[in-house]
Design brief:
The complex is a heterodimer of chains A (481) and B (446). Chain A is 21% helix and 40% strand. Chain A is built from 10 helices and 24 strands. The termini of chain A are far apart. Chain B has 2 domains: 200 residues, PmbA/TldD superfamily (PmbA/TldD fold); 233 residues, no CATH class. Chain B has 10 helices and 18 strands. In chain B, strands 1, 2, 3, 4, 5, 6 and 7 form a 7-stranded mixed beta sheet that branches. Chain B has a 5-stranded mixed β-barrel with strand order 8-13-14-16-18. In chain B, strands 11-10-9-12 form a 4-stranded antiparallel beta sheet, with no helix packed on it. In chain B, a hairpin with a 4-residue loop joins strand 17 and strand 18. Chain B is globular. Classes of the chains: A alpha+beta (481), B alpha+beta (446). At the A-B interface, strand 1, strand 2, strand 3, helix 2 and helix 3 of A face strand 1, strand 2, strand 3, helix 2 and helix 4 of B.
């Protein structure tokens, strides 16, 4: 495919464009879903095509096509679109400089999931479901596995040629229980259909779906009979499975520089952050250290190069509570006089790269599990995201979890509550953080469905964190009765 | 290539079915040409086009079923796809029930579309319309949004001999206009060019922005509310996703579980799914080829009928209503939602309020408790305090958290006028609603 891509770059140069890049992306995927021990979905997909971006006189056009016989025609369309864009353009697009490379990158893995017998994958999910059903009386059980093999060839008029082979594996199980008028769900290892990583089938084996199934079955059945989560201001210990969502919505999205510049104003919204806040703004308490790290081993937001051919980087976002960086692309970084942070990512071949999260990780603190608990006299340990909503500036949030474990006098009492919901204002909430779990408690979760942009794009991103403690958070606001 | 005619699509289907031999096979072909021009800060920042043609093969044998999807369409690659689906079927585990392919009627065609949309909203046309619209904004205003054209077709056939073909053309516009930090919004999705006046839509958003200057803070608590069509459409989309499918009842997550035949909303509310309604888009069959039926989902507040696909219907021992979206895990979903209009005009609805809120639209709606239909979300782009029947002041946006079973049981007026509002895949036709109360639980900070 490299020849077709580089030939097209030459063709675009011949058309006298100021800049162009061409991305060929081929994604092969396999989805397996079971429900109540039966196969619910068995599907595979091949999706390939080419996306062409051109810049002419500071105006941008993008055209994408699946039919590889129409590449030159589509290149001319991208040029026509750029020429049209120029008619309503106030500021010229300027790309920050980057290193020109000829390179390749591949996700490290031990076991190719596409080589694993289909029957073995189905049986794994069914075995986990059998364990759940044996453990508790449940309304329903489900299991899910998904694998993506993504091949990319990138070239641009500056001379870069990059090959990438990215492999993704993910899966999870769920137990449903209900009583009277309330349905309760417990998921393992997290919500969003499970946990995902850029890794091979070894990741699925390490999830130990069967070994962890009985616990969530028990919890789902117990939740169905549990009391509603109490309301009030309580100390919270938030598990990594929920911190993933907390980081995603209240840090990951607000630091996207295109959003800060208003590019998403009509759709997903803007951000409470402004460029002038860099280096000064107190985002949270001084123990908060957050990085955007596209090199995190196994991260779902890990790659060799972003979709502008910029090398993967690890950047400080919040250091000791102070805002230090944004997620940037070549054009947005240029506005700040910086080089790109390597966060321009496209959903497949058919979409223009936007600024997307990579792996936005909360670095570990110094507290053991016992120390985290010991500091709470009356509070809750919250686990596994169930519901989420945040305003268009990313300030007022309200998140729900699957389960709340009661903490009294520094100990888990064994009592659980259903339907826990907590709310806050982003910087006020992060200021309430007074303890973060140590490195051995740190876990990485992959989110395969981060939505942004028009046309809508879904990004695969990662978040690492340890259980984290917050003081006096508003809890129970979702109880509308 | 992306827009196959009916005969071209049927030729591809025939060829695939021939290659399949004795294999029971369903073939679905979808073509898409999409052009979207996006603007922010009153200038174009993303202007894009995409073309794709996808073939989906579903094979079955008894209770076993497998699907292979590809957009690699050479003869060799399509033959490989047939081979792959055959192999996958061999190793597939059994599903709970055997689901037969559709056998009748032989053919359904819906080839009509509004060609003016294609002519007027091509690359140059979109830019021309946006330029006119943006030029009427005052110097202290900035706009963000998009104008897009969706030119699609869908064809389907199976080894039972049925064929289906539909052309689907629609346009979509939305814009936030901002003035000194305050915003207004307007949006429209339609398959009829005559519905579109981009200039008027910009004017509407600009008027809302003008009205939103110097918002006041009010206490989050329960208020009577007038929900404009965009706000109603947002809620209806989520209600439908969460609770109007038989599958959602089978999963036990619908707020209509154990409530069919009961009064769930005010007797002023009736909700249908009606693909034959003049103001809904034209897709007379579903993703399994089943002819689409009209559903009376809510009749004078009583929960009546649910959307079925083949699998959920087999499970409930009834017939599919023709609402498959091609994902058995989701079941049937109504895509042509129509909420019955009422008898009030906007002025009458305002006049009837001593104190309450007028809400343009909601942001980031999500479910908090599915069985009780508790939702949360924030008001956005035009929220106003009404006192003694008049708009008194814009208010700082608020978060609501409330059960829509409760809120929609307290409807006091419905507007005569309805608007087309984008839903997950097409658009719904909805009026404004006056609710006796909606509970607000937080305030957006600035």
């Amino acid at each position: 495919m490299e020849k077709q891509v580089t030939d097209l770059i030459q063709y675009l140069k011949d058309q006298n464009v100021d800049y162009a890049d061409v991305r060929y992306v081929k994604t092969e995927s396999e989805t397996i879903a079971t429900e109540d021990l039966k196969v619910q979905e068995l599907a595979s997909e091949v999706d390939a095509g080419v996306g062409i971006r051109v810049i002419i006189d500071g105006a941008q056009g993008f055209a994408a096509v699946a039919d590889l016989d129409k590449l030159k025609q589509t290149a001319l369309k991208a040029i026509k679109i750029a020429e049209s864009s120029a008619k309503i353009q106030k500021n010229r697009i300027s790309l920050s400089s980057k290193k020109t490379v000829q390179d390749s990158y591949a996700t490290p893995f031990d076991r190719d999931p596409f080589e694993v017998e289909l029957q073995n994958k189905i049986e794994l999910l069914q075995a986990a479901e059998e364990e759940m059903k044996a453990e508790a009386e449940l309304f329903k059980t489900t299991g899910h596995l998904k694998f993506n093999n993504i091949q990319k060839v990138y070239a641009d008029t500056e001379g870069s040629i990059i090959h990438q082979d990215l492999l993704e594996s993910g899966g999870g199980i769920q137990a449903y229980a209900y009583q009277d008028d309330d349905m309760q769900i417990r998921s393992y290892p997290c919500g969003f259909g499970g946990n995902y990583a850029r890794a091979g089938y070894e990741f699925i084996e390490e999830l130990e779906l069967v070994e962890n199934s009985r616990k969530i079955a028990r919890e789902a059945a117990t939740l169905a009979e549990a009391e509603e989560c109490p309301s009030g201001e309580l100390d919270l210990l938030i598990d990594s499975s929920q911190m993933t969502l907390q980081i995603h919505e209240s840090v990951g999205h607000p630091i996207e520089l295109d959003r800060i510049f208003g590019a998403e104003a009509a759709y997903a919204g803007t951000s409470f952050l402004e460029p002038a806040m860099l280096g000064k703004y107190q985002y949270g308490s001084d123990i908060i250290n957050i990085v955007a790290d596209a090199t995190t081993p196994r991260g779902l937001g890990t790659f060799g190069y972003d979709d502008e051919g910029v090398e993967a980087q690890k950047k400080d976002i919040i250091s000791n509570g102070i805002l230090r960086g944004f997620l940037t692309s070549r054009d947005t970084a240029s506005s700040l006089g910086q080089s790109s942070g390597g966060a321009a990512r496209a959903d497949g071949w058919q979409n223009l790269p936007l600024i997307r999260m990579t792996n936005i990780n909360l670095l570990p603190g110094d507290k053991s599990w016992e120390e985290l608990l010991a500091g709470i006299d009356d509070g809750l340990y919250l686990k596994t995201n169930r519901s989420w909503s945040i305003d268009d500036k990313r300030l007022n949030f309200q998140f729900g979890c699957e389960i709340a474990y009661e903490i009294k006098k520094g100990q888990l009492t064994g009592k659980i509550y259903k339907n826990p919901v907590y709310a806050g204002i982003t910087p006020e909430f992060w200021q309430k953080c007074d303890a973060i779990g140590e490195e051995e408690l740190w876990e990485l979760y992959g989110v395969p469905n981060c939505g942004k942009g028009q046309p809508g794009q879904s990004a695969h991103v990662g978040h690492g964190s340890a259980p984290t403690r917050f003081r006096q958070v508003e809890v129970g606001v979702g109880n509308a009765n | 290539m992306e827009m196959l005619t009916k005969s071209e699509a049927y030729m591809v289907i025939d060829r695939l079915i021939n290659w399949a031999g004795s294999l029971d096979l369903q073939v679905k072909i979808s073509g898409r040409e999409q052009g979207l021009t996006r603007f922010a800060g009153s200038e174009i920042h993303q202007n894009v086009s995409q073309e794709n043609l996808v073939v989906e093969l579903t094979a079955k044998e008894g209770k076993k079923r497998a699907t292979v999807t590809t957009n690699r369409l050479s003869e060799r690659e399509l033959q490989e796809a047939v081979k792959e689906v055959r192999q996958k079927l061999e190793f597939a585990g059994e599903e709970e029930l055997e689901i037969p392919f559709v056998k009748e009627p032989d053919d359904i065609e819906s080839s009509q579309y509004d060609d003016k949309l294609l002519q007027k909203f091509d690359i140059a046309g979109r830019v021309k319309e946006l330029k006119k619209g943006l030029s009427q904004l005052t110097a202290d205003m900035e706009a963000a949004g998009s104008l897009s054209l969706h030119n699609n077709f869908l064809a389907l056939g199976n080894t039972e001999g049925i064929t289906r073909y539909a052309r689907l053309v629609k346009a979509d516009f939305n814009s936030v206009v901002e003035k000194e930090g305050q915003t207004g919004y307007a949006a429209l999705t339609s398959d009829n060019f005559a519905d579109f006046s981009i200039e008027k839509l910009f004017s509407r958003a600009a008027a809302k922005a003008n009205q939103s200057e110097q918002p006041v803070n009010i206490e989050p608590k329960e208020y009577p509310v007038i929900l404009e069509p965009l706000a109603v459409g947002g809620l209806l989309t989520y209600l439908s996703y969460l609770g109007f499918s038989a599958r959602s009842l089978q999963k036990g997550v619908s707020f209509l579980t154990d409530r069919l035949g009961e009064q769930v909303f005010s007797d002023k509310i009736s909700i249908y799914d009606d693909h034959k309604h003049n103001e809904t888009f034209k897709l007379p069959f579903d993703m399994e080829g089943v002819p689409r039926q009209k559903l009376t989902i809510i009749e004078k507040g009583v929960a009546r009928e649910l959307a079925y696909d083949l699998k959920s219907a087999r499970k409930d021992n009834c017939q599919s209503t023709g609402h498959s979206i091609g994902r058995p895990s989701m079941g049937g979903l109504p895509l042509h939602l129509v909420m019955e209009s009422g008898e009030s005009n906007r002025e009458e609805m305002l006049a009837s309020l001593d104190r309450g809120l007028l809400i343009t639209r909601f942001h980031y709606l999500n479910v908090v408790n599915p069985r009780q239909a508790i939702f949360t979300g924030l008001t956005r782009d035009g929220t106003f305090l009404i006192e003694e029947g008049e708009v008194k002041a814009p208010v700082q946006d608020l978060r609501f958290t409330d059960s829509l079973l409760k809120a929609f049981s307290r409807v006091t007026a419905i507007s005569t006028e309805r608007e087309k509002v984008a839903n997950f895949s097409g658009f719904s036709l909805v009026p404004s609603l006056l609710l006796e109360g909606l509970k607000f639980t937080g305030r957006k900070e600035t």
